[in-house]
Design brief:
By secondary structure, this protein is α+β, with helices and mostly antiparallel strands. Helices cover 22% and strands 19% of the residues. The two termini are 27 Å apart.
């Protein structure tokens, strides 16, 4: 799950360009939703359309909860959302389980945790479990299933492994996995929309187990129609960006250098890098220092040292790198509606290189597909494809 440079939330008023204030709809609060408005007058003016959300939460028909919002692409949310899935009492829970508050601040640039052997082993375990869960969900990706169904699969797989799905109620995120379809950059909320043949979907999985978090994501092709040149070019370029970045990680690497590797490759392939969201440190904290920007000429602080854990998770767009957030205050989309892809691994810096803690398994669904050339020929990514979904293999240790 990507970390975000803090931005203001948008007012949910009809056609309102303002930032949200502290005013919240009292009915939404009662049903466990967050709806913020800039002012009382705006709330009153928008009431006729806003109250549809309340009806949906009470078991209304499938609908778009933001009919007046100017969407940038063809994707629409399909509500109502299913109720929050329960967590058994025996599962160890993170601080935000009840009230949604992580109770820590992410942007502590000068406090990068160095894990001891016990901490490193705990990270290996939770990351292995995270990989297992992503693979379970990835096998269910096909036309005709809803993203809410994928959330249910994720939730159950976490519970089966005595783990808590880290996104659930994190800053009030309502689901156990992020499902980002087509133009959604990240943080897509699973709902009742059915995946279509030709879609691409990113599944972002994070687990909390033994006091530590694991985090990874992959972009999947949905159905045979998704394997078209435009989708393949975007997805495989993004896969390559992550691979190239991982190859540079070793003790002494300045974190600012990672973006200098990713962005030139994206641009060379006619794509752009989303700058709003960054990779992040991860350990006992879900999001911690350091920041890992994916764009060039950034000012990230710090250098890699043995024992550090962090994610690299480039978000690459086929068009504009600029983003806009839906009124749910989570779903981030490209401003021009162009498609995006993302891949993520959790990494542990070793004495002589890097260990990919969320590495693919031999039977992981998916893998790279051949990149089409402009003349219609195909070129490989230097890897053997394992199906049509997912992310390619990365060596567990880079020297």
């Amino acid at each position: 799950m990507a970390a975000e440079v803090p931005i203001k939330k948008a007012c949910m008023g009809v056609d309102c360009p303002n930032e949200a204030g502290t005013l919240q709809c009292p009915t939404c609060l009662k049903i466990g939703k967050q709806s913020t408005f800039c002012a009382q007058d705006c709330f009153k003016r928008s009431w006729a359309e806003h109250k549809i959300v309340h009806k949906a939460a009470s078991g209304g028909t499938l609908h778009n909860p933001f009919p007046s919002f100017k969407f940038t692409g063809s994707l629409r949310p399909v509500y109502p959302l299913s109720p929050r899935r329960p967590i058994p009492d025996h599962i160890t829970k993170p601080p935000w389980h009840e009230d949604g508050d992580p109770k820590y601040k992410f942007f502590g640039k000068n406090k990068i945790t160095i894990l001891d052997k016990a901490g490193q082993d705990a990270m290996r375990k939770v990351c292995r479990l995270s990989r297992e869960v992503l693979d379970v969900i990835g096998r269910e990706v096909k036309p005709g299933v809803t993203t809410d169904y994928l959330d249910e699969v994720c939730h159950n797989a976490c519970i089966e492994r005595n783990a808590y799905p880290s996104p659930l109620n994190y800053n009030h995120f309502p689901k156990s996995v992020c499902t980002s379809v087509n133009e959604v950059i990240c943080h897509g909320i699973p709902d009742s929309r059915v995946l279509l043949d030709g879609d691409i979907v990113n599944l972002d999985v994070s687990l909390y187990h033994g006091g530590y978090h694991g985090d990874l994501n992959e972009t999947y092709y949905v159905g045979p129609s998704a394997l078209n040149p435009k989708n393949i070019h975007l997805v495989e370029t993004t896969r390559q960006c992550l691979r190239l970045a991982i190859d540079t990680v070793k003790p002494g690497l300045p974190f600012r250098q990672i973006g200098n590797t990713i962005e030139p490759h994206a641009k060379k392939n006619g794509c752009s890098v989303v700058t709003t969201y960054v990779g992040h440190g991860i350990n006992t904290l879900f999001h911690a220092a350091p920041n890992i920007p994916h764009y060039a000429k950034n000012k990230a602080v710090g250098v890699a040292q043995p024992g550090m854990c962090f994610t690299i998770e480039p978000m690459i767009s086929a068009g504009s790198s600029r983003d806009r957030t839906w009124p749910d205050n989570w779903t981030s989309v490209t401003t021009d509606g162009s498609r995006t892809a993302q891949f993520e691994h959790t990494l542990l810096v070793t004495e002589d290189g890097v260990e990919v803690l969320t590495e693919r398994l031999e039977d992981s669904p998916g893998g790279p597909v051949e990149m089409p050339k402009e003349d219609g020929e195909k070129k490989t990514n230097g890897e053997v494809a394992n199906g049509v979904n997912g992310v390619g293999d990365t060596e567990a240790s880079k020297k």
